Amino acid sequence: MSQLTMPKGFLWGSASAAYQIEGAHNIDGKGVSNWDEFVKIPGKTFKETTGEVAVDHYHRFKEDIALMAEMGLKTYRFSIAWTRIFPNGTGEVNQSGVDFYEAVIDECLKYKIEPMVTLYHWDLPQALEEAYGGWESPQAIDAYVNYATYLFNAYKGKVKYWITINEQNIFTGFGWMTAMHPPGKFNDEKTYYQVNHHVFLAHAKAVLAFKEIMPEGKIGASFAYSPSYAIDSRPENGMAKLDHDNLKSFWWMDVYAYGRYPRTALRYLEKQGVAPTITEEDSKTLHVAAQKVDFMGVNYYQTATVEYNPLDGVTPFGEMNTTGKKGTGQVTGVPGVYKNPSNPYLETTDWDWVIDPSGLRFACKEITSRYDLPIIISENGLGAFDKKTTDNKIHDDYRIAYLAAHLKELIKASDEGCEILGYCTWSFTDLLSWLNGYQKRYGFIYVDRDEEGGTLDRYKKDSYYWYKEVIETNGASLSVE
Fold this sequence. Notes:
By secondary structure, the chain is an alpha/beta fold. The chain is built from 15 helices and 14 strands. A hairpin with a 3-residue loop joins strand 9 (about 335) and strand 10.
């Protein structure tokens, strides 16, 4: 057999998010975001870390993009901070913010790097939170569409690939169910599902607006997808897996791709009294927009194992590992439906995330079979405790092994018929890992900073040179047969 590669024109990329890399939190007219406020609450982040400086990409983007170009990156996925464009969420435009992102886009284009823009990566303008509870109000839908439409017009002709929403399932779950993200509410299940419905409508209306402005462009959402396995072949565990998938994955993916909720999951939520209010007009909007979505964006990190959870079993509110001390994460689930025990056949990261390269191939094949949509892997990567040597080297062979194993499975998925447009590692530089501070490193570029600060100097890790060769050979260097 001959060596396999990705198709010609494949977008080898890397990714970031505004709050996690930019810093410059209060200059050049930027408004206050919900994350700017949330991190001030004691105990919410590792060692009280914030994104006020982050890794200072705002002032160093030319240096960072030059490093991307040297690597040979074909696409760079980054998010726009809503508060740099509309400091108050709506109203007056901040031209400095518009100019900043145009400069980032132009710098990418200068090096023939395809800019891939995420409109919303969790940083909601605080003004909208204070005015009407942010996403809890349908007013947020119009504010988001106004913001999105402005950017479509501003960068038309320069940006082809757009992502509407990043990991809707994560920011809503952590925001309204476990209090780990803004607005920090706990077990507000009814609001949680209504918030998701509002976000779906914002996504859908943005897609419809986009296709009026840029019919030749490509748009979709990025979903944090963890395919699942039943823990064994007992029927109750197979049923638990089915219910888990409908409630944890297809609840979002079916709306993006079909414009409707999974029927049995909706019925379950209706019986629990927590289903969202859905109008006939809402259903029509979601359905029409789904026909115009161009790809399914997938942030893949791990798979889930599913087992039936008795009524007196574990709840969704177990402790999450944010310290990197392996084995401190707790099993969670929904009483009477499912729970997610550890997989005895797989290793985990220091943060208790399962390492399952074959799960990426599984995800692509399942999406292809269920939705028949092109796929963009918008995030995949390994968070680890990287160390810099005295001669400024970073030997992250474990990251190379992790990414190589996942890419081999991605190439196999492509060969098996999945249409995969691009693959973005998380992340290009080290960055602020939301709740985990700066100790959890993901990048090809080591940034000299920790929870106390640092020089912010950039250093290439071993993985930087490895990924450069992967890109140069279009994956042939991985020797997949």
